[in-house]
Amino acid sequence: MNGEERLWQIARGFHVSRILLTAVELGVFAAVGDGSKTSAEVASEIGTDPRATDRLMNAVVALDLMAKDGGRFSNSPDVRELLVPGKPGYIGAALGHAVSLWRSWSTLTDAVRAGTSVVKRDPGFTEPFIAAMHHFATQLADMVIGHLDLAGVRRVLDVGGGSGAYSIAFCRAKPELQAVVFDLPEVVPLTQRYVREAAMADQIATVAGDYNVDDLGSGFQLVWLSQILHANSADENAALIRKCRAALDPGGRIAIQDFIIDPDRISPPSAALFSLNMLVGTHAGDTYTEVEIAEWLSAAGFSHIRRVDPPESGTSLMLAQRDASS
User: Fold this and answer.
1) Of 27, 30, 169, 307, which one is least surrounded by beta carbons within 10 A?
2) Number of other CB atoms surrounding residue 166 within 10 Å
3) pLDDT reading at 125 higher than 90
């Protein structure tokens, strides 16, 4: 592939993404389900134009996500298991967040000009976002928690805990443990639903609030911050980590999970790209280096600061302890 071909391949990469997201957004895969249907039948069911629906479904076939036989379309095996509602592996709700990302990333040019997000947040953003975060966190939680020392931990504060996926994993790993998920008022009802579904309501409580404004409580032996720092500015993170220290008992520990970028700010590539995700989606979010996070921890009064890189997760952990005598 020469240089021009490579540039065109990158420039047109959105075609494939948009075909998949539109099919998910319109409910094409759900309409076909485990059977087979004509494009006209699908169009009638989902309320779309018959010709346009046919062209969309033909493109989906070209991506090997559907098969076509005699004018009837059927989902591929992977699609049947992952994108048909009701199946155990269904991820359609989580992919709804990718639709939101499409909209925010479409504003990247204007965000670079402005230096901040220019997106007006859709009221429907929160539920698919939490569903997506729950999906990914559930896959990683047990493995990530295996890298933490839970000895002496009776209460965990899960700051910005979303669905409570990590709190659920903490409580399963240590049944006598109690967790508190602190998140925004619009998120907490979703948290409570996921906690009920996990049959963990006796172990996991919720508190509604804004961690940039409100007190986080006290009496915890572990504060867990998973994928929170990248949503904030550097000053907001320094202040939040001070609040986390205040919430801990002497000798308590903090564990931070996030995408940590190297000092050159170009590697790992996933962290460099994610910094743009924060640019288009937040007021002042970013990806941060190990040195930056360690400085915030040290300034807040934490010691024994260290980094752990679970090889399976694609993220890093920063661990620290509040001095036992302070």
Assistant:
1) 307
2) 26
3) no
Give Cα separations from 314 to 123, 139, 259 (angstroms).
Answer: 30, 12, 8
- Parts of the chain belonging to CATH 1.10.10.10: 3-105
Closest of 97, 108, 79, 217 to residue 155, by C-alpha = 217
Residues identified as active-site? 230
**What are the backbone angles phi and psi of residue 24, rounded to the nearest 5°?**
-70, -45
* The domain defined by 150-322 carries CATH number 3.40.50.150: yes
CA distance 98 to 92: 10
Q: How many helices (H) and strands (E) does the chain have?
A: 14, 10
> Three-state DSSP class for 64?
coil
Sheet arrangement for strand 204-208: 204-208, 178-183, 155-159, 220-226, 248-258, 316-322, 302-308
Using alpha carbons only, how large is the chain's radius of gyration in Å? 22
User: 299: which residues sit within 8 A by CB, 6+ positions away?
Assistant: 238, 242
The answer to whether the pTM exceeds 0.70 is yes
Using the predicted structure, report yes or no on whether residue 74 has a pLDDT greater than 90. yes
Per-residue DSSP letters for 28-48? HHHHHTTSEEEHHHHHHHHT-
Asked whether the predicted pLDDT for residue 34 surpasses 70, the reply is yes
Give yes or no for residue 326 having a pLDDT over 70: no
Over residues 143-199, the pLDDT tens digits come to: 999 999 999 999 999 999 999 999 999 999 999 999 999 999 999 999 999 999 999
Report the run of H or E that residue 251 belongs to, with start and end: strand 248-258
Instruction: Check residue 207 and give its pLDDT.
Output: 98
CATH, range 3-105? 1.10.10.10
How many CA atoms, within 13 angstroms, populate the side-chain half-sphere of residue 44?
Answer: 5
For CA atoms 321, 169, 125, 289, give the dihedral sign.
Answer: positive
**Residue limits of CATH 3.40.50.150 in the chain:** 150-322
